[in-house]
């Protein structure tokens, strides 16, 4: 009887171990089917991702130096679209249906956005959305935030008339460069 029990336990343990190994291999396959160059481009894109229930890469102007100096260009975005990581749309994307306020997160920290109207507001999301495959892969990359990009987005939103509140403004920068863009909360 103990032989039967031992055999049963070994069988169950081997199935669990095989299942976990298969799941791990699937995760690694998601990453390993990218070439090294494609992986680097996608990782560079991930520094531009904000979160609001979904991962949102905010690519507003593909010609802007904030993106190009990180290797994100029209051609690299087209390449990421070819390998089913992003959807690239020249006309861009917007998210509709916002109330008076919303909150987005960048690098794990919140930025509160206040709109001028009480309802039916929208937010420009730029030219890129992640595919389901891209979202899964982006969750595997640990990418540090890019303070210059953050300030670029905040300035852009401020210029659109949005009221912003954030804890991420770099207090060591020149006093006149960002004081007009948002309030700083402690």
From TrEMBL:
Q: What is this protein called?
A: Uncharacterized protein
Superkingdom of the organism of origin: Bacteria
